[in-house]
Amino acid sequence: MLETVAQAVINGLLIGGIYALVSIGVTLIFGVVKIVNFAQGEFVMIGMYISYFLATYFGVDPIVSLLVSMPVLFVMGVLIQHFLIRRVLGPNDMPQIFLTFALSLLLLNLALLLFTANYRTVHTFYSDEAFHFGGLYVPEAKLIAFVVAMGLSGALWAFLRTTDLGKAMRAAAQNRDVATLMGINPNRVFCVAFGAALALAGAAGSLLMPFYSAYPFVGQVFVLMAFVAVVLGTLGNVLGALVASLMMGVAESLGIQFVGADSGLIVVFAMLLLTLAFKPQGLGGGRMR
Amino acid sequence: MADIGKWKWLALAVLALVLLALPQVVKSSFALDIFIRILLFSFIGVAWNLMGGYAKQLSLGHAAYFGLGAYTSTIMQIDFNISPWIGMVAGGIVAALASLPIGWLCFRLRGPYFTIATIATAQALMLIFLKFRDFAWGAEGTTIPNLGSAPLMLQFETKASYYYVVLGLLALGLFITWRIERSWMGYYLVAIGEDEDAAEAVGVNAPRIKRDIYMISAFLTALAGTFYVQYIYFIDPATAFSFSISIEAALVSIVGGIGTLWGPVIGTVVLETTSTLLQSWLGSSTGGIQLTVYSLILMAIILWRPTGLMGLFNEAWQRHLHRKPVRMRTSP
After folding, report:
1. Closest CB to B295 among A105, A262, A277
2. Number of domains, chain A
3. Which of A22, B48, B237, B326 is the most exposed place for a label (fewest CB within 10 A)?
4. Which residue in B has a C-alpha nearest to residue A111's C-alpha?
5. Is there a contact between B241 and B66 (Cβ–Cβ < 8 Å)?
6. Does residue A283 lie in a domain region?
7. Is residue B328's pLDDT more than 50?
C-alpha cells in the first residue's frame, strides 16, 4: 500500500515537472504582459512535432532537439507578441481572450490538416529503461525530463532575479507605467517574456517526446493542467506555479491510481473548483512574485 | 429618426415573411438542413450574447447548458415517456438552476480566468455524464425513439416543421434580447460590461445582475439542446457537451457583433455559409479546414474590426447618412 502511494507520488512529481514548464510560461505571460495565452498548449504540441520530425528524419535525440525547439519557439513568441498581441493590449478583455483563443484553434487545426490526427511516437534507447529503488521504479526518460525541466525553471528564476532584463521584466509586471518612466521599453520586455514562455513550452514538448505521443490535440491536456496550476499557485507567481504544478501532477497520479484510469481529469477539475470555492486568490494568498 | 424606425419595422416584417415562406419554396432537404443549422446556432449565439455580449462575461462553457437541456428532456422522454415539449422547459429550468452554483464559482474570477473556469465546468459535466452510465447511458449515448409524425412529442416527418420550431425559438430569443436591451437591466448589463467596478460604485448590484442574466442565458441555451437532440434523434456526452458548441456560440456573436441584437444572426449566416461552401468545394473529409478558416476569420475580426460585422454595417450606414447633407451643400 505504502509502496503504491510512493510510486504514484513519484509518477506524479515526474509529470508535474512538465506541467511546471507549461504553467510557468502561462504565469510569466500573465504576470508581465497581463494576458492569458490560451494557445500555450499548442506550443507544446509544436515543440513535440519539431522533436518528432528531427528524430524521425535526422535521427536527432529528442532531448538534444531541445536546442532547436527552444530557439524556434522563442522567435515565434517574439513575432506573435510583436505583430499580434501588441495590437490588442488594452483595458478590454474580449480581443485578448479571443485572439489567443483563435491562435490556439488555428494552430490546432493547421496541425490536423498538415499532420493528420495520427499519434506519433519516438523510440529512444532509454525509452524503456528505468532505475529501480527497492520496489519502486523511476523511468529514465521521465527522470531526464524532470531534471531538465527543473533546471530550466531554475534558470528562468535566476534570470528574473539577477539579470537586468529579468529585473526589467519583474518591474514591468509590477507596474507598467512606472517601469516605462524608468526607461524600460515595455514592448521589448513583453517580447522577451512571451518568447521565453513559448521556449519553455517548446522544451516541454521536446522533453515529452521520448515517452509521450504527439498528436494535434495533445496540448489541450497540458494547458488545462497549467491553467489550474496557475490559479492554484496565484496568478502571475512563478514559484507558486511551479509548486502547484508538482501538486497537480501528484493529485492526478493519485487519482488515476485510486479512483480509476480515466479519472485524472476529474481530479484536476475537482481541484480547480475547490480552489475557486475556498481559495480564489490561490494558495499564495494573492501575492505576485 | 421616426422615419428610420418605420423602415426598421417594415424590413423586419419583410424578413419575417421571407423566413416564414422559405420552406414552402425551398424543398431540398439539404438546403433546409443548412437553414435549420443557421437558425439553431443563431439562437444559441443570441442566448450567449445576452451574457457574453452585453455584460462581457465571456463564457466558453455554454455547452454545459446545451447538454443539460438535451439530457433532461431525453431522460424524461425515454424513462418517463414525458413529451419533450415539457422536457424542453424542464431542461431550461434545470439549466437555469445549474447556472446558480456554476456562476457562484466562476464569477469569483474575472476576465480570462472566468472564461477558463467556464470551460472547466462544461468539461467536468461532460465527464460526469461519461462516467455515470446508470442514468445517462454513459459514453455510448442512446438513440431517441423515432415515433414518425408526432408533433406532441416534438417529432415531425418533414424538415419544414423543425424549421418552424427553431425559427420560433430564435424569434423568442431575439424578442427577449430586444426587451432586455430596452429595460433597466440592459443598461446595467452594458455598464457591467464596460467597467464592473465603476458600475458597482454607482450602485449597480453587479453580482445579482450577472446571476440573473446567466440564468436567462442558460435557460435559452438548454432549449436549443433539447431541440438539437430531437432533431438528430441521438444523444451522447460528446455531442451534447461538445466544446465546439461553446466555441460556436461565442464565435458567431463576436464575428457578427458582440452585444448587438442582430450580431449573432449575421455572424452565423456568414460562418455557416462559409463552412457550407468550404465543404462543397473540398469535401467534408478534410479534417480541420472548417475551424482553420473560422479561426482566421475570428483573428481578422479581432485585429481589424472588434465591433464585428454589425460595426462595419453601422459605420457604412453612418457614412451614408453624413454624406447626404455634404452633397446638398456643395451642389449649387
Report:
1. A105
2. 1
3. B326
4. B288
5. yes
6. no
7. no
